[in-house]
Amino acid sequence: MIEKQKSTTKTKLLNMIKKKEVVVGIIGLGYVGLPLAIHFGQKGFKVIGFDLDTRKINMLLHGESYIKHIQMELINEMIKQKKLDVTIDFNRLDEADCILICVPTPLTDKMEPNLNYLLDTTKMISENLRVGQIVILESTTYPGTTDEMLLPRLEYNNMKVGQDFFLAFSPEREDPGNKKYNTANIPKIVGGITPACLEVASALYNSITQVVPVSSTKAAELTKLLENTFRSVNIALVNELKVLGHKMGIDIFEVINAAATKPFGYTPFYPGPGLGGHCIPIDPFYLSWKAREYDFSTRFIQLAGEINVSMPYYVIEKTVEALNKNEKSLKGSRILVLGVAYKKDVDDDRESPGYIIMKMLLEKGAIVSYNDPWIPKLKPSRKYNFHMESTPISPEVIQKMDAVIIVTDHSTYDFAEIVKHSDLIIDTRNATKGINEANEKIVFA
């Protein structure tokens, strides 16, 4: 009888997915959840977007975007056609057949996982869970989270996973601002608690992209952490080689580009002022934290973290040296920081190295301003509370500065003009390479 109920529940949900009759509920309408909602809507599914931030919900309902690289035309059309509904009412979770969790999983001040958002979300789901739903976690976390943290909180009141409801993990792979790859053409890793869970989750994601099934939720969780740890370690390597290259008088960008001509066995990574974004600065520490449970030290991860964290300090060091050569001290110098987004051409400033660079400059007595066409005003965050607005760039503004630090190389910047009117450029992105100006004023950091 139980097997028959299990089969009936699964079969019904699979048929609904195939006919696109399921309602997809997405919790968290940020850089991951909102694009996901758009792609499911474009494929013909009805979507309900949930978020605790009333500002986001109101902006969407009024046709305004809070993520600049996402086109509001698509969202407006979906809302108009009633393919997308957005709400702060989490009691409506029982309306969704497929619930996708896309909430933040930050680190604490002690560099340990902070699962408060995830656990609060799981509690709200458990209060509205019904037979025939699937819950899929997309937020990046350590191996075992889905099995150890979500499952016990959902499998209660005689609700059995793989029989009454289904639970899976499928890590987000969103790359904000990437014009080539998006949710529709990036394969989805999927791991289920049971084979039935994997089958249902795979069927759902197969409707929008290619699926790569793995044996368990733990394998799927570790896959995501491997991807970002790989990037963190390799970025740390080129960051360290950049510092060595400066001491040896070698252009590391020239070396990287030369090495990249090898058609096998090498992947180019590029140095910068430090790591930013919601993945690479955070995700490897989830893995190193979990590894301690097994009395295992992840030395590569920790060393890479130390190197990458040190890069903003190196930028400050190079700035002090360059100002000294101009017979100026950092204290009292007017510094313009170009870019606080963590990478070019996005309005995402999470974990941006620009913030710690500005913080250190201010602490050392510099007079700091910034410009970022993507981020007109700095918002308070867990770590920083700058009350600053973007300073418009003009020849007059640049000429007043003792130094300009290029933190983010946005496409809109005319670096030739910036160099022309500057006394000193601290270039952390190789953005001014090839500009035929007096190179004495350009310092690469």
UniProtKB/TrEMBL annotation:
Residues 336-434 form the UDP-glucose/GDP-mannose dehydrogenase C-terminal domain. It is an enzyme of class 1 (oxidoreductase). Its EC number is 1.1.1.22. The chain crosses the membrane at residues 21-40. Keywords: Membrane, NAD, Oxidoreductase, Transmembrane, Transmembrane helix. SMART domains: UDPG_MGDP_dh_C. Coiled coil: none annotated. GO terms for biological process: polysaccharide biosynthetic process. It holds the Pfam family UDPG_MGDP_dh_N. One of its GO terms (molecular function) is UDP-glucose 6-dehydrogenase activity. PANTHER family: UDP-N-ACETYL-D-MANNOSAMINE DEHYDROGENASE. Belongs to the UDP-glucose/GDP-mannose dehydrogenase family. NCBIfam families: NDP-sugDHase. This is UDP-glucose/GDP-mannose dehydrogenase. The gene is ugd_2.
